[in-house]
Amino acid sequence: MSDSENNKNLKPSTKEVFDELMTTVDRLFAEKPYKGLLQSMDDFFGTSNDRSFPVEIIENETDYRIKAMIPGIKRQDIDIEMLDQGVIINVKNQETVQETNENKGLFKRKSTLKNKSRTIRLSKPIDGKKASASHRDGVLEIKVPKLKGKRIAIND
Protein backbone atom coordinates (compact mmCIF):
# COMPACT_ATOMS: atom_id res chain seq x y z
CA MET A 1 0.00 0.00 0.00
CA SER A 2 1.23 3.46 -0.84
CA ASP A 3 1.28 6.40 1.56
CA SER A 4 -1.62 8.10 -0.24
CA GLU A 5 -3.80 4.99 0.19
CA ASN A 6 -2.96 4.83 3.92
CA ASN A 7 -4.01 8.48 4.35
CA LYS A 8 -7.38 7.82 2.68
CA ASN A 9 -8.19 5.02 5.13
CA LEU A 10 -7.38 7.07 8.23
CA LYS A 11 -10.28 8.60 10.13
CA PRO A 12 -9.97 12.27 11.07
CA SER A 13 -8.87 12.84 14.63
CA THR A 14 -11.23 14.17 17.26
CA LYS A 15 -9.35 17.46 17.22
CA GLU A 16 -9.82 17.82 13.45
CA VAL A 17 -13.55 17.11 13.73
CA PHE A 18 -13.91 19.60 16.58
CA ASP A 19 -11.91 22.25 14.69
CA GLU A 20 -14.12 21.80 11.62
CA LEU A 21 -17.26 22.11 13.76
CA MET A 22 -15.99 25.28 15.43
CA THR A 23 -15.07 26.78 12.04
CA THR A 24 -18.61 26.10 10.81
CA VAL A 25 -20.17 27.67 13.91
CA ASP A 26 -17.85 30.69 13.68
CA ARG A 27 -18.81 31.13 10.03
CA LEU A 28 -22.51 30.98 10.93
CA PHE A 29 -22.19 33.91 13.32
CA ALA A 30 -19.55 35.83 11.33
CA GLU A 31 -21.34 35.84 7.99
CA LYS A 32 -24.40 38.01 8.02
CA PRO A 33 -27.55 36.47 6.65
CA TYR A 34 -29.95 38.76 4.80
CA LYS A 35 -30.93 40.73 7.93
CA GLY A 36 -28.68 39.16 10.51
CA LEU A 37 -29.51 36.07 12.52
CA LEU A 38 -30.96 37.85 15.56
CA GLN A 39 -32.95 40.33 13.45
CA SER A 40 -34.46 37.44 11.49
CA MET A 41 -35.52 35.77 14.75
CA ASP A 42 -37.07 39.03 16.00
CA ASP A 43 -39.00 39.39 12.75
CA PHE A 44 -40.26 35.80 12.96
CA PHE A 45 -41.46 35.97 16.56
CA GLY A 46 -42.44 39.64 16.47
CA THR A 47 -41.36 42.24 18.92
CA SER A 48 -43.22 42.97 22.10
CA ASN A 49 -44.45 46.27 20.66
CA ASP A 50 -46.19 44.49 17.77
CA ARG A 51 -48.11 41.89 19.76
CA SER A 52 -48.46 43.31 23.25
CA PHE A 53 -48.77 46.49 25.30
CA PRO A 54 -47.34 47.74 28.59
CA VAL A 55 -49.08 46.71 31.80
CA GLU A 56 -48.60 47.82 35.40
CA ILE A 57 -49.76 45.58 38.28
CA ILE A 58 -50.34 46.98 41.76
CA GLU A 59 -51.06 44.49 44.54
CA ASN A 60 -52.40 45.26 48.00
CA GLU A 61 -53.91 43.09 50.74
CA THR A 62 -57.41 42.87 49.26
CA ASP A 63 -57.06 43.23 45.49
CA TYR A 64 -55.02 43.69 42.33
CA ARG A 65 -55.13 46.81 40.17
CA ILE A 66 -54.03 46.26 36.61
CA LYS A 67 -53.33 49.25 34.35
CA ALA A 68 -52.86 48.62 30.63
CA MET A 69 -51.64 51.43 28.36
CA ILE A 70 -53.62 51.09 25.11
CA PRO A 71 -53.89 54.53 23.46
CA GLY A 72 -56.16 54.91 20.46
CA ILE A 73 -58.26 51.84 21.30
CA LYS A 74 -62.02 52.10 21.66
CA ARG A 75 -63.83 50.52 24.60
CA GLN A 76 -65.78 48.11 22.36
CA ASP A 77 -62.50 46.73 20.94
CA ILE A 78 -61.32 45.48 24.35
CA ASP A 79 -62.12 42.00 25.66
CA ILE A 80 -61.22 40.97 29.22
CA GLU A 81 -61.28 37.34 30.31
CA MET A 82 -61.00 36.36 33.96
CA LEU A 83 -59.16 33.17 34.92
CA ASP A 84 -58.82 31.50 38.33
CA GLN A 85 -55.47 33.15 38.91
CA GLY A 86 -55.02 35.60 36.05
CA VAL A 87 -56.48 37.98 33.50
CA ILE A 88 -56.32 37.96 29.70
CA ILE A 89 -56.71 41.28 27.89
CA ASN A 90 -57.41 41.09 24.13
CA VAL A 91 -57.42 44.23 22.00
CA LYS A 92 -58.60 44.53 18.39
CA ASN A 93 -57.16 47.48 16.51
CA GLN A 94 -58.25 48.16 12.94
CA GLU A 95 -55.98 50.53 11.08
CA THR A 96 -57.06 52.08 7.80
CA VAL A 97 -54.63 53.87 5.50
CA GLN A 98 -55.91 55.87 2.54
CA GLU A 99 -53.73 57.01 -0.33
CA THR A 100 -54.75 59.19 -3.24
CA ASN A 101 -52.85 60.13 -6.34
CA GLU A 102 -54.57 63.16 -7.85
CA ASN A 103 -52.50 63.03 -11.06
CA LYS A 104 -53.63 59.52 -11.95
CA GLY A 105 -57.01 59.66 -10.20
CA LEU A 106 -56.17 56.64 -8.08
CA PHE A 107 -57.58 55.96 -4.66
CA LYS A 108 -56.21 53.23 -2.45
CA ARG A 109 -57.51 52.12 0.94
CA LYS A 110 -55.70 49.54 3.01
CA SER A 111 -57.25 48.18 6.17
CA THR A 112 -55.47 45.87 8.59
CA LEU A 113 -56.74 44.25 11.75
CA LYS A 114 -54.11 43.87 14.46
CA ASN A 115 -54.88 41.81 17.54
CA LYS A 116 -52.84 42.39 20.66
CA SER A 117 -53.10 40.22 23.73
CA ARG A 118 -51.61 40.16 27.19
CA THR A 119 -51.95 37.40 29.78
CA ILE A 120 -51.33 38.54 33.35
CA ARG A 121 -50.67 35.77 35.87
CA LEU A 122 -51.35 36.67 39.48
CA SER A 123 -49.85 35.12 42.60
CA LYS A 124 -53.16 34.55 44.42
CA PRO A 125 -56.60 33.28 43.28
CA ILE A 126 -59.03 36.05 42.30
CA ASP A 127 -62.77 36.64 42.39
CA GLY A 128 -63.53 37.31 38.72
CA LYS A 129 -67.25 37.83 39.40
CA LYS A 130 -66.53 40.96 41.47
CA ALA A 131 -63.95 42.45 39.09
CA SER A 132 -64.55 45.86 37.53
CA ALA A 133 -62.91 47.77 34.69
CA SER A 134 -62.76 51.31 33.35
CA HIS A 135 -61.24 52.80 30.21
CA ARG A 136 -60.20 56.43 30.15
CA ASP A 137 -57.63 58.41 28.10
CA GLY A 138 -55.96 55.31 26.65
CA VAL A 139 -55.58 53.58 30.01
CA LEU A 140 -57.55 50.45 30.87
CA GLU A 141 -57.79 49.93 34.62
CA ILE A 142 -59.02 46.64 36.06
CA LYS A 143 -59.70 46.09 39.77
CA VAL A 144 -59.77 42.41 40.78
CA PRO A 145 -60.48 41.32 44.37
CA LYS A 146 -58.43 38.48 45.85
CA LEU A 147 -60.22 35.39 47.13
CA LYS A 148 -59.77 34.83 50.82
CA GLY A 149 -58.76 31.33 51.74
CA LYS A 150 -59.96 29.56 54.85
CA ARG A 151 -57.37 29.56 57.63
CA ILE A 152 -57.04 26.51 59.82
CA ALA A 153 -55.49 26.09 63.25
CA ILE A 154 -52.48 23.85 63.66
CA ASN A 155 -52.97 21.20 66.33
CA ASP A 156 -50.18 19.86 68.52
Automatic annotation (TrEMBL):
InterPro entries: A-crystallin/Hsp20_dom, HSP20-like_chaperone, Small_HSP. Transmembrane segments: none annotated. Pfam families: HSP20. Residues 46-156 form the SHSP domain. Gene3D superfamilies: 2.60.40.790. Belongs to the small heat shock protein (HSP20) family. This is Hsp20/alpha crystallin family protein. The lineage of its organism: Bacteria, Bacillati, Bacillota, Bacilli, Bacillales.
